[in-house]
Amino acid sequence: MATTVATPTFKDAQWLSDHAGRESMVVSCYADTSPSGVRPLWREHLKNEVKRIDATFSDNLAAIDAFHRNVEAIEDVLASRRASARALAVFAAYQRNLLQVYTLTSIVPNQLVVDEEPYLVPLLELLHRQRRYLVVHTDTHRGRLYTAVPGELRMIEEIEEAVPKQHRAAGELWGKRQATIARHRDGRIAHYFKSLAGRIVRAWPEESYDGIVLFGEHQVLERFRRHLPKALWPSIVGEAPHAWAGRQLPLSAKLESIQAQSVHEHERRIFDEVERRLAEQHRIAAGPQSVIDAIESDQIGYSGAIVMESDSGEIGSRCTACRRLIACAVTECPSCHGRCEKTNLWQAIALLATNKHVAVHLVDRGHGLDRYGRMVALLTREFPQALREIQP
Description:
This protein is α+β, with helices and mostly antiparallel strands and 392 residues long. Helix content is 37%, strand content 23%.
């Protein structure tokens, strides 16, 4: 089997959806391989799941043989690579000579799924929930820029300026000299801050960052902010005191705290907007089919978004002829009367949104979205059928 190991992207999820299914069995495996004391559990879980799935094949010897070939390939991957990532996602399709492996930066529950299409829900949820930050750690003359995602901190640039040290006054003449040195020092610090701000401006558009995090002494950060373009100020999602240290910085705990607060604030703003639009019955599509129609008719632009709860296992249908997505299980397409295949509805909508470059915001349950099929779409322009699925 061909094997590819990578950190997953939305393009990978779409590629798997397009190439790994329908014509043959696909086995999807998610394994917690973190060094947190639970690493051996993936093997026991996999063994139990294999027994359970074996029983569903009855006397279909060909299916049993294909299943076990796929599982054997997955076991080999997990046994050889479990120390290299916190979690792994492995997709095996023996008849298509496919073995795709992805390293995950966040821990996922152990899971084994057999279907005609790859099970991408955990992967898509991880990608949609993942926050990517541009981290800036600075003092008055040294700074480092990092790209941070959960479980991974990668330095991308380092900058340093020659700044004179501070001196204490010793007499009138020395005091005048010190004032001159202080002015020169302030000028060099300002030049360094300007250079650092320029590096941030260049780095910001290079990746799809969700925010900027600042680390350093509070007084230093306050001075530095004045050199950062005001257009980037709203993108600063948090800051924390952190003394300058060696190359490996223990920032993970502080980053996780900032991220949790940022996600909480973002979710609160999203639900405030959802409630306002529902109350005004304005620029919102409610329910799975209305959300699908809004995506396909380009009613959700750059400033719009889909707000949805986690997957609940609902089944939808995909027409094999016109590729229309339908938010219920049907055998015949209502548009072209072509044959329909079942699909995971949540997964299909998330992939459809990805193809259209529509933002998806995953939220916890308990906010009332269950009345609207657990999802709504915030529209950039009015959609005539936006409210057809809202229940009184």
